[in-house]
Amino acid sequence: MKKLTELTPQQHQHLRLANDSAIQFAHQQNIMNLRVSEVSQTACSMPIFYVRDGNNGQWVLTAFTSFEQGSNLFVKQGKWTALHTPTNMQTFPFFLMMSPDDPQRYTIGIDEQHEVFSTTTGQPIFETNGKASLHLSRVKTLLESDINNDIQTQAFNQHISQLGLLRPISILIQHKDGSTPSLSGLFTVDEDKLQTLSQEALFELHQKGYLAPLQAMLMSLFQLNALINSHNKTPGLNPIKSIKLEVSKNSAAA
């Protein structure tokens, strides 16, 4: 688990950030956390699923980027190729944390031991006068906005969970060599349940702005076909013949 230290010009004046820090973060992420505000944009490129946080059991909205652990099919030759760049990729390696001096205030924290930081190479985090660099200023703005986005996402997650709109699924993979691994622990929108909601419940979803992201999540499943094509064009990966989505019987959505 990463240990965060408050970022300050006094302590980190000479710290530099690797120019490809976002790529370093993303290239081994086969799922990437999302906010509900990102769902419509993300659905144009990637399948979107829910997973459970292993530490607290909370719902986590994620973009699915590869059928293989430690792989991301949207990182090609050191570049990000998807139409949308998730916020947590844009802000990495900076995180919101509670101020050690004021528990009522957020501040920016970093994992000082992470390999993207250096004192000799990369872009400066602070200017010589101690002011935030243009990159850090942009990240600060994103992180400040992300506080509200996080609150909105939690409210969205809670509401659709209470309506029973999530169902567990497994992705059954058939490789061309005959092997048949499966991926579990994923949840998607229960389209049948969504269609049978009362008019009052559907109207409330619409009023809250939740209907559009739900529909985008359903449409995003078609991106699995594009993901298979990308997988099969990537050297070193076991080619996939087909996949099948199956409702899982061993995971509870409640």
Instruction: Count the domains.
Output: 1
Largest sheet: 3 strands, antiparallel
> How many DSSP E strands?
14
- Give me the number of helical elements: 9
InterPro entries: SapC
Protein name: SapC family protein
Pfam families: SapC
Organism: Shewanella vesiculosa
Question: Could you walk me through the main structural features you see in this protein, from its secondary elements to its overall organization?
Answer:
The chain is of the alpha+beta class and 254 residues long. The mean pLDDT is 94. The chain is globular and about 60 Å long. A hairpin with a 2-residue loop joins strand 6 and strand 7 (79-80). It has a 3-stranded antiparallel β-sheet with strand order 1-9-8, covered by helices on one side. The chain starts with a strand and ends in a 7-residue tail after the last strand. It has one domain (5-247). It has helices at 9-12, 21-26, 39-42, 87-91, 134-162, 191-195, 199-208, 211-220, 223-232; strands at 5-6, 16-17, 31-33, 48-52, 59-64, 75-76, 79-80, 95-98, 106-110, 117-118, 123-124, 166-175, 182-189, 240-247. Pfam families: SapC (PF07277). It comes from Shewanella vesiculosa. This is SapC family protein.
